[in-house]
Amino acid sequence: MARNIPFFAAPTYLLLITALCYRVAADGLVNEEVKRTVDLSTHIAKITAEILLSNQGDSAVHNFILAVEPDLAPHLAYVGASVSDFRMNLPFPTHITQAERQLVVFQGNHYLYSPYPTRSQTTRVRLASKTVESYTKLGNPSKSDEAIEYGPFRDVAPFSEDTMKVHYENNTPFLTISSITRIIEVSHWGNIAVEETIDMRHTGAFLKGPFSRYDYQRQSDSGISSVKSFKTILPASAQDVYYRDEIGNISTSHLQILEESVEVEVRPRFPLFGGWKTHYIIGYNLPSYEYLYTLGDQYALKMRLVDHVYDDQVIDSLTVKLILPEGARNIHVETPYPIDRIPDQLHYTYLDTFGRPVLVASKNNLVEQHIQDVVVHYTFNKILMLQEPLLVVGAFYILFFTVIIYVRLDFSITKDPAAEVRMKVASITEQVLTLVNKRLGLYRHMDEVVNRYKQSRDTGALNSGRKSLEADHRTLTNDISSLQARLKTEGSDLADKVGEVQKLDGQVKDLVGRSCQEAERLVAGKVKKEAYIDNEKTLASKRLELVTRIDSLLDTL
Amino acid sequence: MAEQHTAADGKHKASPNAGGSLHGNSRTNAVGGGGGKGGLSGGLAQPAGWQSLLSFTILFLAWLAGFSSRLFAVIRFESIIHEFDPWFNYRSTHHLTTNGFYEFLNWFDERSWYPLGRIVGGTVYPGLMVTAGLIHYVLNLLHLTVHIRDVCVFLAPVFSGLTSISTFLLTRELWNQGAGLLAACFIAIVPGYISRSVAGSFDNEGIAIFALQFTYYLWVKSIKTGSVFWSIGCCLSYFYMVSAWGGYVFIINLIPLHVFVLLLMQRYSRRVYIAYSTFYIVGLVLSMQIPFVGFQPIRTSEHMAAAGVFALLQAYALLQYLKDRLTKQEFQTLFFLGVSLAAGVVFFTIHIPIIASVSEHQPTTWVSFFFDLHILVCTFPAGLWFCIKNVNDERVFVALYAISAVYFAGVMVRLMLTLTPVVCMLSAIAFSSVFEHYLGDDMKRENPPIEDSSDEDDKRSSGNLYDKAGKVRKHVSEQEKAEEGLGPNIKSIVTMLMLMLLMMFAVHCTWVTSNAYSSPSVVLASYNNDGTRNILDDFREAYYWLRQNTDEHARVMSWWDYGYQIAGMANRTTLVDNNTWNNSHIALVGKAMSSNESAAYEIMRSLDVDYVLIIFGGVIGYSGDDINKFLWMVRIAEGEHPKDIRESDYFTPQGEFRVDKAGSPVLLNCLMYKMSYYRFGEMQLDFRTPPGFDRTRNAEIGNKDIKFKHLEEAFTSEHWLVRIYKVKKLENREPLEHKLRSIVPRQKYTSKKTAKRKRGHIRNKLVLKKGKKLNKK
């Protein structure tokens, strides 16, 4: 009864495992054949073990226990079904110059650390380069170009340990994210804003001595372990990507939009040598329909708890802040792995009144395998969507209303009755002026009518024109006199002047009438042309005189 | 009607100054008859609301145009603080917003002027920081989460809108509404003002011009009304100006000058007395509230003119009072003349040295006048002439403003800024009058001239804009008579010409803004032949490296130009910065830069320097680098340390400053030279030039084999623009070799003894010193 059982994930329960181990050993499980691969080609050690397991006991086995060496346990970042990531590569020497290559020591176990006895096992170590300074020689391992083969070891007892030490050259970027704060802000208006604040350092061998730009530019292998740039893969729908720090946009970045992702070539302002660090902010927007699911008032947000920053990433400490819309209630979170929740906060941003709930969580020691989805369920009353537009409308309403109030009402401390009367008089005189002007306009219109009559000799048109003049004139005159009466009641001396204007206007009217008659007589042939012209001239001059007087009166108004 | 209004106005005012208002009446009427004619926008005046709507729209558009034309830098680059001083302002504003106002006032900045430090709270004009901080605070109170950097970047463009509004108000007071609108449009886009107020140029001048114009508006208003209310408003605005910019001295001299000239012109009235007395006393007290100004207003010479005019005004008022009692006319006039002449002499003798002391910059060239003001510089004398022709109290003011500003601008390029507003106003007046004459024909039917004085009276007495009674005065029947006898062709040609000038002005403004004034100077850009752009971000690269990868308390030595940027972007302690308050400290840095390495190391050790930062443009041909500024370092160092540094040592015998082989050996071995060209001798930039060819100075460097003993290269930016060197600590004394071990103790003992003995032996010392001195001479 031999089965190939994959590992089951046991992230941090090491103590439990050691306590149980003897009882477990009695179960009769035996590792028939183990193929371990230690991948040291990057800055993290990935240990994969393929285990052929047989149950030699009587009863069925439901559990399989994976043990981790006590020394390694603090460095363990992730255990998956096929891979476990350790951060056990230590640079040695710890300080190198720009021209030197980076050498790294890996310390591990030759054997699979297991609570079960092992029949046969091999360990294959994959290296980053051909150059190996030294390695432990247990069982006469064979070394090929970039790999060392140990074993096969036969019949290894449970919990057997034997230190394996490999000292080799590894120039892959030893980048570590010392802290990352990921803020996800959900808006029900269709947008999810993501912003990551990243502190990053080069945890390889420290740079010793000067940094020479000349060498770095002119010699290809100078500063070979330094990091010039790396790629961050963002979701395909990411928009408005920004990459900046405290002093502004980092202009050295490039963005490439691919079919399935958006790739940002993150190039820090300066190349990162051993021990150097940098700090930046990267942010982007996502359409919410890809991540936000809704059913009635129920909402579920499914987002990556932590996202890709660079390949084989290592994160020392992660803080995630999930900002939900204002008014979200009954929040509960499903995380793919245990994560420390920090008490919720409130966040205020545009047009908020009572604050948006913020879920805060933190976790230490993460690797690429931790890029998994978190699901947040909450309820949200859709009516609350109206709150923000209404707030804006209300604010503008109040603004306009106050302006209206301010303009319409008099807020002066001292009452000035004279000024009020003056204002009233002013408005009346203004009306008078327009009316008088209109009336003068009528006369000019009449002149035109008369001229046309002189040419066309159409008496009907003349009469109708005269009639309309009479009618309009009467209404205008009446209006003016009523205004004059109002002026009188206000006690203004302007009333007299208006009266004078009226008088003068009457004379003008007469003159217009006379010129009209003259024209009729001319047409009828009762007057000679020369006489008519003379008459017309005197009439015109009289009229002009009157109009000037009216104007001068108006000016004094 | 106008009389009626002004008369009522006189009643409306406080009764004690009835005499003043009478005086005012006759004057304003004279103005109305002679000068101000209808506004451009007056054509639609039938319902008065149209006019206010139109002016509101024009002002709004002017604001918008002014704001958007200042955004070139933001659009081309990013929202970033520009140049040098703004970085300090930004840093202080940041400090203000994070630590609060009182903490800011008490801020002792130990990160600058190491080891002296700087009392920032007492040595800055806090107006700018407080304004930005306040805006940020209010926005955050409303939950508008705007970063303080964005507030700082966009503050100047926003204030340019306020400037154009206050210019509109001032010009309306001086002439009429149409001219006001034109002036608002001019100032919104004129390059002379844009140069100091593009987005990102977070500097005092950005808000100070608004404060200046607004103060002048309120001053004109208070001198027109003689009301304490406007005077107090003027004082508050003056207070804001004092808190914002050192240029407040211009106000505190121009206003007394105005009053003084009014007195000389026999235009004294109670309004002048009230306005100036209030302004001087309240303004003095308020201005002394700014820590940086302190007691200067009663101690320094540039404020004495104001005090003198104040005393003179009191004396004059007393004489006026006595005149009613005693009728000794001759005596009094003699007295008046004597006093005024004395005061005038005092005024001008005091005034000139100030200008001389301020004018450290070079005088303005004619080209830059045209470049910054374009046609306005040609038209503003016309406006000035119009103002003088129809003179009244406030036009005296603008004339004085114009004359003094022209003088200052001629003396010093920087003061072009104070000239710009008045040029805009006067040009607007000129254009407005021309348009009235030449654009008026088709409008005249409905729009005869409007008398501005009555317009103002209306507004003042009725208090709102809806009442425009008295304006609509139509001589319908008489339009033919009013013609000036100009043919329509001439009119349209002149109008077209004017419009074309204005159009060219707008084009020029945009061009200048885009090309000359919209570079952040922190980020450089170069264009390839195919139009693509390369951004050279070396400054920020190096500063950010300092910020991230040096000790938090590391001390960085650099020439003072970069002090503010290092403090702002790298957040590291600097030795000297753009504040330049301590010349000897700057000289010490200059001495370190211009000495040889070991001498410089002594200085740097004594100053605790950890890093040295220099700017080197030889790789990309950037001309503003430290080698080009080097002679200034030498000169300043020589000023303080004439024994050690001599400028002539850095020149070739022919008196040339050369970096190639012919250069003087002192230059080729000084610290600045070595730091600039370290390993540059190996670098071949292209195949036509030899290795070590400096593109900025077009020369092959003379010293290619540069070795450092006490320094090491810590960082060099991508295009070598910024180079940072680390000052090594004193080395551990090397394990002494067998020879030395036996000798050293003896030497020590003997040397001590001889030192003590030598104190007694004068002869030896004297001999040694004599030899040296003789050599020097």
UniProtKB/TrEMBL annotation, chain A:
The chain crosses the membrane at residues 390-409. One of its GO terms (cellular component) is oligosaccharyltransferase complex. One of its GO terms (biological process) is protein N-linked glycosylation via asparagine. The keyword Mitochondrion does not apply. Residues 1-26 form the signal peptide. Pathway: Protein modification; protein glycosylation. It comes from the Eukaryota. It is found in: Endoplasmic reticulum membrane. It is a single-pass type I membrane protein. The keyword Signal applies. Keywords: Endoplasmic reticulum, Membrane, Signal, Transmembrane, Transmembrane helix. InterPro entries: Ribophorin_I (IPR007676). Belongs to the OST1 family. Subunit of the oligosaccharyl transferase (OST) complex that catalyzes the initial transfer of a defined glycan (Glc(3)Man(9)GlcNAc(2) in eukaryotes) from the lipid carrier dolichol-pyrophosphate to an asparagine residue within an Asn-X-Ser/Thr consensus motif in nascent polypeptide chains, the first step in protein N-glycosylation. N-glycosylation occurs cotranslationally and the complex associates with the Sec61 complex at the channel-forming translocon complex that mediates protein translocation across the endoplasmic reticulum (ER). All subunits are required for a maximal enzyme activity. Component of the oligosaccharyltransferase (OST) complex. OST exists in two different complex forms which contain common core subunits RPN1, RPN2, OST48, OST4, DAD1 and TMEM258, either STT3A or STT3B as catalytic subunits, and form-specific accessory subunits. STT3A complex assembly occurs through the formation of 3 subcomplexes. Subcomplex 1 contains RPN1 and TMEM258, subcomplex 2 contains the STT3A-specific subunits STT3A, DC2/OSTC, and KCP2 as well as the core subunit OST4, and subcomplex 3 contains RPN2, DAD1, and OST48. This is Dolichyl-diphosphooligosaccharide--protein glycosyltransferase subunit 1. The lineage of its organism: Eukaryota, Metazoa, Chordata, Craniata, Vertebrata.
From TrEMBL, chain B:
Pathway: Protein modification; protein glycosylation. GO terms for cellular component: oligosaccharyltransferase complex. Residues 54-341, 348-426 form the Oligosaccharyl transferase STT3 N-terminal domain. It holds the Pfam family STT3. GO terms for biological process: post-translational protein modification; protein N-linked glycosylation via asparagine. InterPro entries: Oligo_trans_STT3, STT3-PglB_core, STT3_N. It catalyses: a di-trans,poly-cis-dolichyl diphosphooligosaccharide + L-asparaginyl-[protein] = N(4)-(oligosaccharide-(1->4)-N-acetyl-beta-D-glucosaminyl-(1->4)-N-acetyl-beta-D-glucosaminyl)-L-asparaginyl-[protein] + a di-trans,poly-cis-dolichyl diphosphate + H(+). The chain crosses the membrane at residues 53-75, 119-139, 151-171, 177-195, 245-265, 272-292, 304-322, 334-354, 366-388, 395-413. This is Dolichyl-diphosphooligosaccharide--protein glycosyltransferase subunit STT3B. It comes from Hucho hucho (huchen). The lineage of its organism: Eukaryota, Metazoa, Chordata, Craniata, Vertebrata.
